[in-house]
Specification:
By secondary structure, this protein is mainly alpha-helical. The chain has a domain of 160 residues. It is 74% helix and 0% strand.
Length: 242
């Protein structure tokens, strides 16, 4: 118990919330609330958590695509400086970028209809490579807080897929049906599951971004520390007054 408590205290001590994370977290909460308003009170299709860009402007889809692109950019930045795990950061940057494009243009659904095969099967090799790159990147994080956030992001995405699967089961839907037919037959049970799925994906991506920002910040601080003259180290006892 004491070990668990000390670990939690360590995470809290190391956990810094960058301003960008505050902004993104606020956006997730607002999108969730507006999505609930659309579903329960009055139609606001621009905030419908179940619609796609093919049906008109949709802010949740745009937000999801932009946050995934941001995660890709942060991984690319780490790839440029981290020689030992560069392949993992490059792989994750490409994966996040592809996920952003897929989110906006629904590539997996088009491929599913063309191949007459579940998209999960088509993407399985991508899942394997992505998981291997994710584990390799996990070892590169320097603090417990960063690792907790990185694992939390992955957990949120996995749980989101479980909600999506549950929605399929409540709909009794054929996963190979066209998207339009699926949307038309959604039940009052599946709609909340779909909404939770989307919000969890948003949150998971924000956790990934948070972990990456902390890692970049820590490495910048370490680089500045190493570059500082020995006598000018502000953390050195010799440089402190008195």
């Amino acid at each position: 118990m004491s070990g668990t408590t000390s670990g939690a205290q360590r995470v809290i001590r190391e956990l810094h919330v960058p301003p960008l994370v505050w902004v993104l977290g606020t956006c997730v909460v607002l999108l969730a609330l507006l999505g609930a308003y659309d579903a329960l009170i009055s139609e606001a299709s621009a905030f419908d958590l179940q619609k796609e860009l093919r049906n008109g402007v949709n802010f949740p889809v745009l937000f999801s695509g932009l946050t995934l692109l941001l995660a890709a950019a942060l991984c690319a930045r780490l790839a440029a400086r981290d020689v030992s795990t560069r392949w993992a950061w490059v792989g994750l940057a490409l994966l996040f970028a592809f996920m952003a494009v897929d989110e906006v243009f629904l590539i997996h659904e088009d491929l599913q209809e063309l191949a007459d095969l579940k998209w999960q099967i088509l993407y399985f090799p991508l899942f394997v490579v992505g998981a291997f790159a994710w584990v390799t990147a996990l070892r590169a994080f320097e603090s417990l807080a960063e690792r907790v956030l990185w694992i939390g992001g992955a957990a949120a995405w996995v749980i989101a897929q479980l909600f999506g699967t549950a929605a399929h089961l409540t709909e009794g839907s054929d996963p190979l049906r066209p998207r339009a037919a699926e949307m038309a037959e959604r039940t009052s049970y599946s709609a909340p599951l779909r909404a939770v799925e989307e919000v969890l994906e948003f949150g998971g991506t924000v956790l990934f971004i948070w972990a990456l920002l902390l890692l970049i910040s820590h490495r910048r601080a370490h680089a500045s520390y190493r570059a500082a003259p020995q006598g000018g180290d502000p953390l050195s006892p010799a440089s402190r007054p008195g």
